[in-house]
Amino acid sequence: MFDFFRKYSLPIIVFVGLLVALITYSLNLSRSHQANMLERGVNGTLAPMQQQATRSGGFFGRIWHDYIALVNLKQENSRLTGEIKQLNSALAAAGEALRENERLARLLDLRKTIKEPTVAAMVIGEDVTPWFRSLTLDRGSESGIREGMPVLAADGVVGQTVKVTANSSRVLLLTDHASGIAAMIQRSRARGVVKGRRDNLCSLEFAMRGEDVQVGDQVVSSGIGGVFAKGLPIGEVTMVKKGEYGIFQTVTIRPTVSTAHLEEVLVVLRAPRD
User: Fold this and answer.
1) In angstroms, rounded to a whole number, what is the distance separating the alpha carbons of residues 58 and 222?
2) Can you give the pLDDT at residue 220?
3) CATH 2.40.10.340 domain position(s) in the chain
């Protein structure tokens, strides 16, 4: 036991001295408003540690506050991102509905100019190859559609039905090489037959070499043949070539209707003439 105290005498003395100082400090704290020499010594010894503890507490407090702020900011960003996506989707849907209403309004205006009954149909498929150009509609014989009926868009002639089932129809486009529509130059009344080509263009066949045909002329249906009514827009002349020989001239036509972007059409319920 004596060896223990002799070995640890210095730490024991320091500990006892600090303990006595703290007890004395505590007992005198409530009795006097002025610090004595011992109190000042204790305060001077403990003050740096208290300041360090305060700074450490403030540092970690700020880190925690910043962490909470970042978590809240991330959650807010996620919420705002979701709202922006919803708004963009709603805006796209509204824009699509507006464009559809505009197309349908133009189709309705066209229907008012046609005396025969018509059926509105949606384009649900297309077959565009170098050999065959057609569209598939979502209406068929149950809606009164038969083969050989004219198909129109708001801008003009599209083609005519060639194959009809109960609930669908295939339309041979005017740009197909098998298509032929009796037509005329609106300005000069020069006549011919509009035939399809493989480059999404058409040509005016059988236009006499002496007929007045110029670039920029509008081509309309002539009404001959009984399929298309007279005066329906077909296209615009983009090239006229008169060779040195032959009785016909070469006339290239750009169709008024862009068949690659069609979504809705009108089928005129006109029975073809035999």
Assistant:
1) 91
2) 97
3) 118-268
